[in-house]
Amino acid sequence: MAHCSQYIEMFPFRLVVMFNCVPVEFVRVCVFQAVMAALASLGPKVTDCVTKVALSVSCENLLDMDAFSKSDPLCVLLMNSSGPHWCEIGRTEKIQNCLNPKFSKPFVIDYYFEMVQKLKFEVYDIDSGNHSLQEADFLGELECTLGQVVSSKKLSRPLVMKDKSPAGKGTITVCAEERTDNRVVEFEVSGRKLDKKDFFGKSDPFLEFYKQAESGWQLTHRTEVVKNNLNPIWRPFRIPLQSLCGGDVEKSIKIDCYDYNNSGSHDFIGSFVTTLSQMQQASQTYAAEFECINSKKKQKKKGYKNSGVIIVKQCKTVKDYTFLDYIMGGCQINFTIAIDFTGSNGDPSSPQSLHYINPGGYNEYLAAIWAVGNVIQDYDSDKMFPAFGFGAKIPPSWQVCHEFPINFNPSDPFCAGEALRPHKLFPNHQPRSPFWQASDAAGNGNAILCSADHH
After folding, report:
1. pTM metric for this prediction
2. How many CB atoms lie within 10 A of CB 70?
3. Percent of the chain with pLDDT strictly greater than 70
4. Is the pLDDT of residue 429 over 80?
5. 134-162: buried (b, 16+ CB within 10 Å) or exposed (e) per residue?
6. What are phi and psi of 27, to 5 degrees?
7. N or C: which end of the chain has fewer CB within 10 A?
8. Within 13 Å of residue 189, how many CA atoms lie on the same side as its CB?
């Protein structure tokens, strides 16, 4: 069983949620869907007019924030959740020393026709190895709606700073493409006898894949750089079929090969144009080989043959299974709850405390557990969930405990799914378990009430 711990911050309360899930890459999807479903239940019911959209981002004329080199840009996508609150959806890769970046990593989000989905694209110059935004230089942002991008297909706007002043001459372009095909193409690619471009070494080659679009060639994938090697073997990679060729196996695909330079001015090695159909047919029996051609070098040099050969060892179309595919295939999700009872949450008798029981009979913690758990429980066959607390003084010794079952039954800490509902947790507004005390750094305690039905 794969294991993942996911910490969720849901303003204004704090809740720790842990999942055991197969496969682990879908845990975040599950949590996000649960939270969004819970939030959606608070507002009007929307219809199922939803589709997935891939947003590709590029920029031009970015501010140069580095003294001895160019900026190292990265784009962050945020979506407005409520009021002034924005949540991060994802980030592109960082591109070294480049003021005109074309990001190869797209953002894939759900598009709801009936909803106004506010987006914010923020561009940063990343200076730290951990890609921290706090240590990065801000290069500009764009606020728009997803509807504006989808209706335009290609939206270009100037970047602005936080105070809405122009971010120099910087611009950002966002291209939208509907994702209706969940097939991907798996590649294994290598090179042979590529041109030597470095004076003191060989070449540091990488590949860029482009699809043919109405506006010209559009970047769909960039491989990693293989250092100092004229016969590189790139790591296996996958490209969505729709991104690669729009689902048309006869559509032209351009593959460029470059020698990477730290300055950002990469040396062109060569290029070739092919189709997915050609690559798949040629690689069925043996590896497909394509000559890498540098047209300028070909014009100048007599007897020019090529600048190396790109070898496609594998080019296979497979289905990219969705979260729903795994759920319908029998995937079960185990949902574990952990609640913070430390004194940092304040006096539970005060309405400002997260542990305060309001006149409705529950508090922010219980609302959070119910909102998320009410969705997650549908993916657990026995509807039984372990619930724990930490940072409280509990009976009978009243010593600080950093892990205890909410129902005080260490041998059976499981609670039934129905117990996640507020009226089950506090029937008639009366607590059903003993008092315990929350601890603070000084060892002081406050009385806390909590309860959960258990089977």
Report:
1. 0.66
2. 19
3. 81
4. no
5. eebbbbbbbebebbebbeeeebeeebeee
6. -60, -45
7. N
8. 27
Report yes or no: 229 and 205 within 8 Å, Cβ to Cβ: yes
pLDDT of residue 340: 85
The 10s digit of each residue's pLDDT in 266-290 is 999 999 999 999 999 988 888 899 9
Region 151-177 average pLDDT: 95
Q: CA–CA separation, 274 vs 269, rounded Å?
A: 17
SS3 245: helix
With b for 16 or more beta-carbon neighbours within 10 A and e for fewer, the 211-223 pattern comes to bbbeeebbbbbbb
- CA neighbours closer than 13 Å in the CB half-sphere of residue 281: 7
Using CA atoms, how far apart are residues 237 and 43, in angstroms rounded to an integer?
Answer: 41
Residue 303: CB atoms within 10 A of its CB come to 4
Cβ neighbours of 91 (radius 10 Å): 18
291-348 residue pLDDT tens: 999 999 999 888 899 999 999 999 999 998 877 788 778 888 888 888 888 888 788 8
Query: Omega before 396 cis (within 30°)?
Result: yes
H helices present in 146-218, as ranges:
146-152
**Confidence bin at 240 (pLDDT 50/70/90):** very high
Query: How far is C-alpha 224 from the chain's CA centre?
Result: 19
Q: What single letter denotes the amino acid at residue 409? A: N
Distance CA 176, CA 374 (A): 34
Higher pLDDT, 367 or 312: 312
Structure tokens at 401: 């405990």
Fill in the amino acid letter for 192. R
Instruction: Write out the H or E segment, with its range, that includes residue 11.
Output: none
Helix (H) or strand (E) holding 345: none
d(CA 207, CA 300): 24
**Are 324 and 182 a contacting pair, CB within 8 Å?**
no
- In our burial notation (b when 16+ CB lie closer than 10 A, e otherwise), range 166-205 reads ebbebbbbbbbbebeeeebbebbbbbeebbebeeeebbbb
Angle at 216 between CA 214 and CA 222, to 5 degrees: 120
**Predicted confidence (pLDDT) at residue 394 exceeds the cutoff of 90:** no
Structure tokens at 111: 């598009």
CA–CA gap between residue 332 and residue 32 (Å, rounded): 17
**Which amino acid, one-letter code, is at 311?**
I
